[in-house]
Amino acid sequence: MRNGKKYDTEKLRWDLLPISPIRQVIRVLMYGAKKYGDYNWEQVEDPKPRYYNACMRHLTAGIQKTNDSESGLPHLAHAICNLIFLLEFELTQKKEKKDDN
């Protein structure tokens, strides 16, 4: 019987995250980096409506067909990337506002 202690009950549970979909999202990010350059997504002007629109285009296309015709990667992975970008902008803005106070 093991009696060791580890105080990690409040830490992130990475084991709950399915990795296969994350790999597809990373492939989309790599495709975008090759096409546009690393971290180009951060430099896009007026990003929130543009990434929202891109997300919705991929979501609606993903209902009809699985993969994006240009990248060959799943539309849903593209949509998830756009959602991640939107969340990053939201979290960054909240942090900047908090830091300004």
Fold and architecture overview:
This protein is an all-alpha fold. The protein has one domain. It has 3 helices and no strands. The protein has helices at 19-36, 47-64, 75-100. Helix 1 (19-36) packs across helix 3. The longest helix has 26 residues, at 75-100. The N and C termini lie far apart (51 Å). The model has no long low-confidence stretch (mean pLDDT 93).
How would you summarize what this structure contains?
The protein is mainly α and 101 residues long.
Total domain modules: 1
Radius of gyration: 18 Å
Broad structural category: mainly alpha
Beginning-to-end CA distance, first to last residue: 51 Å
**Overall pLDDT, averaged?**
93
Name the beta content range.
Answer: under 5%
What shape does the CA trace take? extended
Descriptive key words:
101 residues; mainly alpha; 3 helices; extended
List the helices and strands and how they pair.
Elements: H1 19-36, H2 47-64, H3 75-100
